[in-house]
Amino acid sequence: MEWTTCEASNYAKTLEGPAEELAPGFLQRLTEQSLANTQEWTARALADPSWLLFPSGNTPLLPLCATWGAQCAGDPFRYADFDGPDGKSFYQNEAEVTPVVFYDRDCARLSGRVWLPKNSSGKLPNIVITNGSVQAPETVYWWLAQALVRSGYAVLTYDPRGQGRSDQQTPTLQQGSNLGPKVFWEGQVDAIDFFRSTPSRPYPHNVTCAGTYLTVTTPNNPIWQRLDLNRLGIAGHSLGAIGVSVVQGYGAPGADPWPGKMDKSNPVKVAIALDSLMTPDGGSLAPATNYPLPVEVTTTLTQLIAMGGLPKFAPRVPSMSFNSDYGFAPTPNLVQPNVENHKVAFAEWQSAGVPTYVIGIQGTTHFDFSLIPTFPASSWCPDTSSNACVGGWGRPSVTYYSLAWFDRWLKKSGEPGYADADQRLVDDANAEGAVKLSFRYHSARDYPDRSGKRQRCEDIRAGC
Question: How confident is the model at residue 159, as a pLDDT?
Answer without folding.
Answer: 98
